[in-house]
């Protein structure tokens, strides 16, 4: 994509691409996925139907190097984010030159078509890097853990609104062995994970407590700054276990001898909630917008949600093609992405369906620990279009 600058996080834009200045960072995401995609993509259709007559604007989007970024790659491509040099290449065997293989990169494989608005994308390794940019007005939309969205709502006194749920249950327990078959088997073990203070921590602690394990005394949880630390720890000491999101759980299977996915925590969540008489889903990620931006640019928000839904459908329906865009975005390799996508709960859930699912999930977290959602449940204006 022209010149790629390696930095902690970077912004890529359609206009910048046209001038050869587009950049994207290599980083790590904190979200992951599971196989159920019943949430679907229900944002609607007709990308430009309501934007006629509206003044075009630039939509500045932040996302993480994980399923939230993976679900956006169709939109990124439609917005002109990828150059031919981003496509996979092979040696032609004669001249030694790299020859681009057949690739969907740059062809709008999601079928989104012409966009009325411009789009900028900032990909980073953690939500902590990007949340201040949203609050300060340097981003318009940000993909964040669901509980962080609620916390931002409280901290900004309602200045953010959730546009969609983009990732359902994402977390897996990975071990190098055959010792863990039930959540109760984690008692007495050392668990490595990234994501302290967000969905991974609160989901894990909830599941442990509800299954009779005190996270303070019955297990040792080592919070790492990134997933690579967890993998390194597992390679060094096979007796530990890791909690990893997809696609990093899939990547671990190839990097750690004997590694396997021992528990799908989405399934454990469903079983635990049902046993308690509840009805909430495990929701990992959402896309939030600055409320001021959403109110000032409703047509741009509608175009974004329509294009986002089309992008998500493309990723889920054609993992092979989507994987090449994911590699072009420097999220993970195409090989890992293609293997992981079928197990990723990448969705675009909007409106009343979003509000019902998100409220149920946040209520479960609030009942267990009010601080996990910012100390109070969000107000009725939390969910856009609900």
Automatic annotation (TrEMBL):
Top-level taxon of the source organism: Bacteria
Protein name stated in the entry: Sulfonate/nitrate/taurine transporter substrate-binding protein
Origin species: Enorma massiliensis
């Amino acid at each position: 994509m022209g010149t790629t600058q390696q930095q902690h996080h970077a912004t890529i834009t359609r206009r910048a691409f046209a001038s050869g200045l587009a950049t994207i960072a290599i980083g790590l995401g904190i979200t992951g996925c599971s196989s159920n995609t019943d949430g679907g993509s229900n944002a609607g259709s007709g990308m430009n139907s309501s934007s006629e007559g509206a003044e075009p604007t630039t939509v500045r989007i932040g996302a993480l190097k994980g399923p939230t970024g993976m679900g956006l790659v169709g939109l990124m491509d439609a917005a002109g984010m990828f150059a031919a040099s981003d496509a996979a290449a092979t040696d032609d065997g004669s001249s030694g030159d790299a020859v681009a293989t057949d690739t969907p990169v740059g062809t709008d494989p999601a079928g989104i078509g012409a966009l009325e608005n411009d789009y900028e994308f900032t990909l980073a390794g953690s939500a902590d890097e990007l949340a201040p940019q949203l609050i300060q007005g340097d981003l318009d939309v940000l993909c964040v853990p669901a509980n962080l969205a609620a916390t931002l709502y409280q901290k900004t006194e309602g200045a953010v609104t959730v546009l969609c749920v983009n990732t359902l249950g994402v977390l897996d327990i990975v071990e190098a062995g055959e010792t863990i078959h039930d959540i109760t088997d984690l008692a007495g073990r050392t668990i490595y994970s990234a994501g302290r203070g967000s969905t991974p921590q609160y989901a894990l602690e909830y599941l442990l407590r509800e299954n009779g394990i005190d996270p303070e005394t019955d297990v040792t949880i080592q919070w790492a700054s990134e997933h690579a630390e967890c993998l390194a720890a597992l390679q060094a000491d096979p007796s530990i276990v890791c909690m990893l999101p997809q696609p990093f759980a899939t990547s671990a299977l190839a990097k750690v001898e004997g590694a396997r996915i021992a528990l799908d925590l989405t399934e454990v969540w469903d079983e635990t909630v049902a046993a308690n008489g509840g009805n909430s889903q495990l929701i990992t990620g959402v896309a939030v917008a600055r409320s001021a931006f959403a109110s000032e640019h409703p047509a741009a928000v509608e175009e974004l949600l329509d294009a986002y839904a089309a992008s998500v459908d493309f990723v889920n329906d054609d993992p092979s093609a989507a994987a090449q865009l994911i590699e072009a975005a420097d999220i993970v390799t195409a090989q890992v992405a293609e293997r992981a996508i079928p197990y990723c709960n990448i969705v675009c859930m909007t409106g009343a369906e979003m509000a019902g699912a998100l409220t149920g999930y946040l209520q479960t977290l609030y009942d267990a620990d009010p601080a996990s959602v910012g100390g109070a449940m969000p107000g009725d204006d939390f969910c856009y279009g609900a």
